[in-house]
Design goal:
Layout (H helix, E strand, L loop, with lengths): L10 H13 L4 E2 L1 H4 L6 H11 L3 H27 L1 H4 L12 E3 L4 E8 L5 H17 L4 E8 L5 E8 L2 E12 H9 L4 H19 L6 E2 L1 H8 L3 H10 L11
Length: about 250
């Protein structure tokens, strides 16, 4: 194993954590997984007609979109669980906050992007943090954003029931500032980002990746040679009149 030059995480821990993340990536797709959350054939019809694409291409794009959504969750796993290896003081609990440091009374909620939460979700998170501070007078609660608008470690200002609320122990923190807090190195996140492509290359070179196996279109053709008709029947077969649906 080559050296990655990060003094806040061992080469072995970094490699293994990246490997765990890569191995979560999805390579296979079948009709059951494709329709797990009920595909919308009306939207796919619009997409095909408006963008001038075949329905087969639109289905393939939808498969990629679904896989990408799952993979985004896996990247969230990477960002959160890497802190199990960076410091003995920080760990990822089984439930509750994403990351905690009980010794120094830090409680962390981590989000991938600054716009992940809507207003209701943000208020719920803030109230939860307020309750944590009521239960632990020494607590500092952090909303850590991987992709934030700015590099920051500042008081989180929010509106609750039309009133501006701020508590210096409830903070909004970009991921670079959080890494600095955990490691003591101002540039530790930048160093991780520089090393990461090399680690991913090494992992991908070592593991045996699954051969992509996509049976969605073949399974749709078994319902009907007309893929668009199959999509409608998949969603609406039990609806009135769809027994002799023709499109």
């Amino acid at each position: 194993m080559r050296e990655y030059g990060l003094d806040f995480i061992s080469d072995t821990d970094l490699f293994n954590h990246v490997r765990e993340t890569v191995e979560k990536y999805r390579f296979n797709a079948n009709l059951s997984s494709f329709n797990k959350n009920l595909v919308d054939p009306i939207k796919l019809s619009f997409d095909a007609k408006v963008y001038g694409k075949t329905i087969q291409t639109i289905v393939e794009n939808e498969i990629i979109r679904q896989a990408d959504k799952l993979n985004t969750n896996h990247i969230g796993y990477f960002h959160q669980n890497i802190f199990n290896f960076i410091s003995d003081r920080w760990h990822v609990p089984q439930s509750g906050y994403d990351i905690v440091n009980t010794e120094e009374h830090y409680y962390v909620e981590m989000k991938n992007k600054h716009n992940t939460m809507n207003s209701s979700s943000a208020q719920k998170t803030y109230i939860r943090m307020q309750n944590t501070i009521l239960a632990d007078a020494d607590a500092t609660c952090l909303l850590v954003e991987v992709i934030a608008r700015n590099s920051q470690n500042s008081t989180w200002n929010i509106s609750l029931d039309g009133h501006a609320i701020a508590n210096r122990n409830i903070r909004r923190v970009s991921i670079d500032k959080f890494y600095q807090l955990v490691t003591g190195d101002e540039f530790s996140f930048k160093k991780l980002c520089e090393a990461l492509p090399k680690v991913i290359d090494d992992v991908v070179d070592e593991i045996e990746r699954d051969v992509a196996d996509n049976t969605v279109l073949a399974e749709l053709e078994r319902i009907s040679p007309n893929i668009l008709k199959s999509l409608y029947l998949l969603a609406f077969e039990q609806y009135a009149g769809f027994g002799d649906f023709d499109v």
